[in-house]
Design brief:
The chain is an all-alpha fold and 79 residues long. 70% of the residues lie in helices and 0% in strands. The protein has three helices and no strands. The chain has helices at residues 10-21, 28-55, 64-78. The protein is elongated, with a radius of gyration of 17 Å. It starts with 9 loop residues before the first helix and ends with a helix.
């Protein structure tokens, strides 16, 4: 797995340590991976919202249920 070095605040580091220490996560890497998955999901939902606001219909007129199902399938594939 590729390694990336990032800088975080002391409060963020403490929050990650607490999440691991409390048993919610097995490692700090797991916390960060989940945070990135949530960030990616939020980014995709924002793009979807922007499509609706810009075009009046989501992504070529597809129904929201189909688009959500596609989003969930993509999330499961990338997990």
């Amino acid at each position: 797995m590729p390694m990336v070095t990032v800088s975080i605040s002391p409060q963020q580091a403490a929050g990650i340590r607490a999440a691991v220490d409390n048993g919610g996560y097995a490692s700090s890497s797991e916390v960060v991976r989940e945070a990135l998955r949530l960030w990616d999901s939020t980014r995709k939902l924002n793009e979807f919202r922007d499509d609706i606001l810009d075009e009046g219909t989501p992504s070529g007129g597809r129904c929201v249920a189909d688009m959500f199902a596609d989003h969930e399938a993509e999330r499961r594939r990338s997990a």
